Amino acid sequence: MVQKRELLESVVESCKLPRVTKVLATLPPSEPRDLLLESLPHATEIGGEERHPFQTEVLKMAVEMMGVVRTAAAETQTGLVAQAAQATASSTTATETFAACKQRQEAAALDRDGCAALALQAEEAHANAEYEQSRSEAARGRIMEERVKLDAEKAESEKFLEGGWEGMDANLVQEQLKAIGAEPALIAAVPGALAVHSEHRGAFDALTTQALTSSLKDRAQIVESMILKNQQGEKSASSFALGAWAFADMAKGQAASAAEKVADSEDALAAVTAELKKCNASVKAEDKTLQAALGEQALADDKVQEIDSAMDELQHVIVHDTIQPVAAVQEFSMETEDKEVPLVSPVPAKSDELPATAVISPESISIGGC
Question: Domain count of the chain?
Answer without folding.
Answer: 2
